Every structure is written in C-alpha cells, then in structure tokens.
C-alpha cells in the first residue's frame, strides 16, 4: 500500500495483452485465480482478468480465496462450479459486486466498465466513512476498455 486506501497490484508474470476479438488457450496462472474457462482448457479472452479481479476482491473482503480447498482437485472443482460462500458480515452490495465478477459464464461476467458503475463502488457512505482513492494508471484503464492512443 502506498498511502491510506491506495493499493498497488503487481506480479503479472503470465500477462499478455488481449484485444476485443483475441482469444487464448494457454493453461497458465496461479490456481486460485484461474477462471473456469482456463481450468476447462477452453479458449478465453480478457474476461479472465475480471474473474481474477473478483477473486482478489473476495480475498480482500474475506481474508481467504473463494475456491480454496486442501487438494488441487477440490479447488479446480469449486472453480468450475463457481462454488463459494460469504460470511454474514459482508454487505449485499459487496456480495453482488464480487458475484458479478465470479460468474462462471464469461459472457455474463461483468466488464470493468460495468463494475466501475456498481453501487458498491459508488456508495457515498462506505465503511469507516472514508472515500476510496482510485490510483489506477490511465493507460491500464485504456487497455481494459480497448481504447487506442
């Protein structure tokens, strides 16, 4: 963390730029963050990043990854089914935010444009009455929204 409420995410060792119509089929990534389409060996697109973002959001809220199991096989099965639960202390808006990202159907999984407009992100009275500071590199947003320079 850089300063209060600013988080930097790093370690993009297996990253690649995927255009609107690009698809990949490489089986790679950190198990807990793999999307169902990667786990199943199907073609995938940039929506796998939204899945990984959902896993990260869940982990920040709950302190654990959503699909953790003791065995690799168990984790893979939970990912394929999109099987996860929240504790009671998580707000309905936060649950919805994460659930929209962890949709097993990549077609129905929400995009970054949709999630930026989500009620949970835009609430005026968030926990601890603090404003969220977005320190996201404009270039990253342009890439995610497929805007060319």
TrEMBL record:
Residues 1-121 form the Protein kinase domain. It comes from the Eukaryota. SMART domains: S_TKc. PROSITE patterns: PROTEIN_KINASE_DOM. ATP binds at residue 11. GO terms for molecular function: ATP binding; protein serine/threonine kinase activity. Keywords: ATP-binding, Kinase, Nucleotide-binding, Serine/threonine-protein kinase, Transferase. Pfam families: Pkinase. SUPFAM superfamilies: Protein kinase-like (PK-like) (SSF56112). This is Protein kinase domain-containing protein.
């Amino acid at each position: 963390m850089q300063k209060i409420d600013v988080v930097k995410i790093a370690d993009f060792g297996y990253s690649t730029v995927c255009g609107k119509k690009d698809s990949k089929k490489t089986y790679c990534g950190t198990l807990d963050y793999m999307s169902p389409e990667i786990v199943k060996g199907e073609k995938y697109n940039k929506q796998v990043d939204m899945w990984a973002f959902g896993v990260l959001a869940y982990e920040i809220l709950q302190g654990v990854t959503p699909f953790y199991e003791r065995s690799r096989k168990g984790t893979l099965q939970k990912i394929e089914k999109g099987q996860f639960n929240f504790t009671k202390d998580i707000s309905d808006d936060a649950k919805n935010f994460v659930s929209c990202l962890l949709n097993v159907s990549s077609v129905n999984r929400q995009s970054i444009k949709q999630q930026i407009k989500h009620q949970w992100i835009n609430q005026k009275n968030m926990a601890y009455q603090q404003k969220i500071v977005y320190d996201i590199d404009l270039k990253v947003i342009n890439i995610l929204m497929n805007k060319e320079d």
